[in-house]
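The records we work with from here on pair a chain with its fold. Taken together, the tokens spell out the fold as the letters spell out the chain. The record below shows the convention in full.
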Amino acid sequence: MSRDQDMTDERRHAEGMKTRREVLGDAHVDRAQARTDAFTADFQDLITRYAWGEIWSRPGLDRRTRSCITLTAMVAGGHLEELAMHVRAALRNGLTRDEIKEVLLQTAIYCGVPAANSAFAVAQRVLAEEE
């Protein structure tokens, strides 16, 4: 039986919440949960089960690698609020400031200098807050 077939929605949600808390921290997840209402509950369930319970919990890549990929995706998509959250997550996942810088330098070539410029500003702010 494949991993997907073995995971019920309830188990996927529990695994996702565990991973989400480990990657993003309890405070962030608690704030997201506190803001959940009838309109956003289905979306919160979806991202918990699939983004965190299915993808981030897969054994094929370690969390450091997933963080590098996610930082790049946030820059490429121009998702700067999410980028800030994932810079914090990258630190929790063991990336150093220099490794985060290298990921952002790489994005300058493949995502564009203006996107990387904005990403560096966000990361600089987040890293200063985390010190």
User: Anything to note?
Assistant: The helical segments are 3-6, 9-24, 26-35, 41-55, 63-77, 80-92, 97-110, 113-130. The longest helix spans residues 113-130.
